[in-house]
Amino acid sequence: MTINWQKVVIESSASIKNALKVIDKEALRVALVVDNDKLIGMVTDGDVRRGILQGIELSATVSQIMNTNPISANVSLSSHDLKALMQSRKILSLPLVDDEGKLVGLKTLYDTLIIEKRENPIFIMAGGFGTRLKPLTDNCPKPMLKVGGKPMLETLINNFKNHGFYKFYISTHYLPEVIMNYFGDGSDFDVEIAYVHEEEPLGTGGALSLLPNTLPKEPLIMINGDILTNVDFGKVLDFHIKQNSDATMCVRDYEIKVPFGVIEGEGHEITALVEKPTYRYFVNAGIYVISNDIVASLPNNKHLDMPTLFEIKKREGFKTLKFPIHEYWLDVGRHDDFEKAQIDIHALGL
């Protein structure tokens, strides 16, 4: 269903009769009242019925019956968040406004249930040994360890599916047959999966060189296969495209709290005393968006880590950006992380 939300916009001076015509004519079953581009009210057929029961004439203005405090949402919210808001409030449509309160769109619950397919390939790194998780990984690749009853890799693929992605490449090295036997070509999971095998570990950047030269022109999303997250990958990709970035690295805000007073100085002289300071840094989240040109430029079978790749491409004049993520994110690398994931998975809706 294509929505032309501008057709349901009326002014506060419009009559109730005109509002009713708009509501009946358009499939959205609502009229949005706007003055000076700002949303000031909403009218449904229920509002009209209640007005009539109160003796208000159809020739009166909609300002007499409209909901003057309609539920709206900032346009920056993801489809997942919009759906959750509409479901929690039991509403079928939600006006979208910008930071200044100006009406910029209308989202329906039906829209949030439709997933637009994206042609961007997804490259998942799943070849690590998982040494820190032994003995769990003695006979199982780390991404195939079960969290919430299914392999982490399956949860990751499903999350990408929820954002419209369906083309996957999986890099393997340690026990590749476990992964390939489980997922096959992806048809049982309604996706397409191809595999690239590292004979020797090439690092996160080096593995990119194993991808076929028939990749789509669209930017590629790369992610470590041992990450549990509900990041909106579509939003990350949209940022990369809008900013004309060549390589985008997702980063996390990381705090280090020092439990002591920190002394700053020069030589023997004290220049400052900071009591129990907190230092904040951005750390690599293991999620990247890489342009097709960069993938094509990599030498074959050469070991290369992603931070090094970013440094090299920045020196070469490519545009490299960071994208802070604030959603849930967990690198399942140690036993306590694995135990935490078993608890967190039930609250994530994954």
UniProtKB/TrEMBL annotation:
Coiled coil regions, renumbered to chain: none
Domain of life: Bacteria
Keyword field contains Repeat: no
Manganese keyword on record: no
InterPro entries listed in its UniProt record: CBS_dom (IPR000644), CBS_dom_sf (IPR046342), Mannose-1P_guanyltransferase (IPR050486), NTP_transferase_dom (IPR005835), Nucleotide-diphossugar_trans (IPR029044)
Residues in CBS domain copies: 1-58, 66-122
UniProt signal peptide: none
Gene3D superfamilies reported for this sequence: CBS-domain, Spore Coat Polysaccharide Biosynthesis Protein SpsA, Chain A
Keyword annotations of the record: CBS domain
PANTHER family xref list: SUGAR-1-PHOSPHATE GUANYL TRANSFERASE
Protein name: CBS domain-containing protein
Species in which this protein is naturally found: Pseudoalteromonas fuliginea
